[in-house]
Design goal:
Blueprint (H helix, E strand, L loop, with lengths): L1 H20 L7 H17 L6 H23 L8 H25 L1
Amino acid sequence: MRKLFLILALLFVLISIAFTILPMGTIAFLPIGLSLIFSLLLLRNSEGQHTKLPTWLLTLSAVCSLVVLLKVVLIEDKIEVDQKFEQQKVDTKIEAKKELEALENDLE
């Protein structure tokens, strides 16, 4: 059972690190929570000298959790209005209107 918990804890810690680095937002808490759970189960099933790795895995999971929490709280998303694009939309509408008027004049 210890080997299963070890493999799952390692897998979810690696996924947690990847999700922490990538801009995943709060979705990263899912693998972090699973890595914490499996690391705790691994720590509970380990004895003596075999508690170093579960402790490191717990520490990595906690650090990932803290980093994701700080990214969510401190980094704010800004929406910028693209003035150039807005001007192009207005120009396109004006050109389309002129073309329609020219077509109407040709038909008359």
